[in-house]
Design a protein that fits this description.
Elements lengths: L1 H16 L8 E7 L2 E6 L5 E4 L2 E4 L11 E3 L5 E5 L3 H6 L11 H10 L7 E5 L5 H9 L5 E6 L2 H14 L5 E5 L11 E6 L8 H4 L3 E11 L3 H13 L1 E7 L6 E2 L6 E2 L9 E7 L2
Parallel strand pairs: 7-8, 7-10, 8-9, 10-11
Antiparallel strand pairs: 1-2, 1-6, 3-4, 5-6, 11-15, 12-15, 13-14
Length: about 270
């Protein structure tokens, strides 16, 4: 049994990371901490940097983890994009997006290995939408609602860069009017007045499944909490995550002067029968 598990893991690892890059694959081109670019490989295109020009035709056929030497002698590395990369490297973000510290906690709380149908509102720039798509099983889908077509166009562009558009169904509709899906395994809301949507979402949420709401201000917490409680949601928690990075120098390790402190509040609960 253990041998079979190891064999499956190795097969997944090598198929995921060791296959040659093809046209259309997403890649992070990393030169140094200040020069990291997320791109989708397309023949005939190039990336111009102050360290040299990178022709995408030359990257196709290489593997993630490969490196190439630029005209200036600097090295560029080809890396598999991560959820962290979505936030910091090159995707369009005309609206405020969730931070990786919040996204990571949300993904863990949703128990994504057990879900097939995830409902989200609003789509925004699509950072959480894409993070969900990258984390879901092969047959799972995200149905993401928003009232702004311009924002969904941005999210579609970003999803296409990462190659996860087939896992996402974009819906231009006000979720406060209800959803089209009958059985949802998880629901996530990032909108100004989630308490106006929650009563309509209780029925289509499967029993014991999770609903998570993200709000940026304290005065939104109470309305959201009691909308969840009055709708029948139980096991409700209100949380805030703080992230502090450290600066490492020889004999001088200390917290960075600038950190990510308050970003918002996560309110989560589960449906009872």
């Amino acid at each position: 049994m253990l041998f079979c598990q190891v064999e499956r893991y190795l097969t997944h690892y090598f198929s995921y990371y060791m296959m040659p890059l093809n046209e259309g694959d997403p890649v992070v081109i990393w030169i140094d901490p200040k020069r990291a670019y997320i791109s989708k490989l397309e023949r005939g295109k190039r990336l111009d940097t102050d360290k040299g020009v990178i022709f995408y035709d030359n990257l196709i056929g290489l593997e993630y983890g490969s490196s190439l030497t630029l005209q200036t002698g600097a090295k560029a590395y080809l890396l598999k994009p991560t959820i962290q990369d979505l936030y910091s490297k090159g995707l369009k973000r005309p609206s405020q997006v969730l931070y990786p510290k919040d996204i990571g906690y949300i993904l863990t709380t949703l128990s994504l290995n057990q879900v097939k149908t995830v409902i989200e509102a609003g789509t925004g720039s699509g950072f959480l939408t894409i993070s969900l798509a990258l984390s879901l099983s092969e047959n799972a889908k995200i149905y993401t609602y928003d009232v702004r077509e311009d924002m969904q166009k941005v999210a579609k562009f970003n999803a296409n860069v990462l190659g996860v558009q087939d896992k996402i169904v974009f819906k231009l509709k006000d979720i406060r009017e209800g959803i089209d899906e009958k059985e949802a395994d998880a629901i996530f809301l990032d909108m100004p007045d989630p308490w106006n949507a929650i009563p309509k979402l209780y029925e289509p949420l499967k029993p014991s499944s999770t609903i998570i709401v993200f709000v940026p201000t304290v005065n939104q917490i109470e309305k959201t909490f009691f909308a969840m409680k009055n709708s029948g949601i139980i096991d409700i928690h209100v949380e805030e995550l703080i992230l502090r990075e450290y600066q490492v120098k020889e004999n001088a390790v200390r917290p960075r002067n600038i950190g990510i402190m308050h970003t918002g509040f996560i309110i989560r609960g589960r449906k009872s029968i």
